[in-house]
């Protein structure tokens, strides 16, 4: 979900490793990826069928360069980015609603994504879309870097105030989407384990041409969204690490051993919802 094109080979390899490590005899397994190259395999006992679909996964997410140079700005940030994120969440929400009907099984979703930031590289986008503004022409380098030398007049300009409001709206929308997804997962009794296939990254690709501080803020926000989603549903997140195998084994240990607690009531009256357990 929400994967950049250059991580496609790693994602394919990673999905196969997940299948080999976490799927055991008697497990139902499925696959879904969203976007123009999306793939979907319904729940099946045939692991080979799922693996055969993995090579069709293609990342179509927006790169940092795309986000800065090629996005259509809306009042709350890049509209297409928000739409793509919403579509990804809706796809997972649909899977969770289907899992709600499956009983007496441990249900897990391995959520592979590079994370979400609905208002990324705000200052860099502001420079890109406001080059005709006189203040921006005077200090473009300071603004692009977002450093301490930024002209105070720029920080208080109407354009920048609108942009800062967009950050608030974007954060609120993302929190709302994550909360709704976690609520659906709770109702479906399903745990989400989130994974960033990029592994450990210390600096941006040279082709992205973004300031290092802006890159770090972007990565922090994206990883935070994955951590939040996992924590809200009782799972763990694999982000900012290359130690995939060991963490997958930890997930396997958590998902392989479990128990179900229940009881049969002796009270035949179905209207008595609350029971006293002794």
Write up this protein.
This protein has eleven helices and seven strands. With 278 residues, the chain is mainly α. It has one domain. Helices cover 49% and strands 10% of the residues. The chain is globular, with a radius of gyration of 22 Å. About 9% of the residues have low confidence. Strand 6, helix 10 and strand 7 form a beta-alpha-beta unit. It starts with 7 loop residues before the first helix and ends in a 22-residue tail after the last helix. The strands form three sheets. A three-stranded parallel sheet has the order 5-6-7, with helices on both faces. Helix 1 runs parallel beside helix 11 and helix 9 packs parallel to helix 10.
In short:
The protein is mostly helical. Helix content is 49%, strand content 10%.
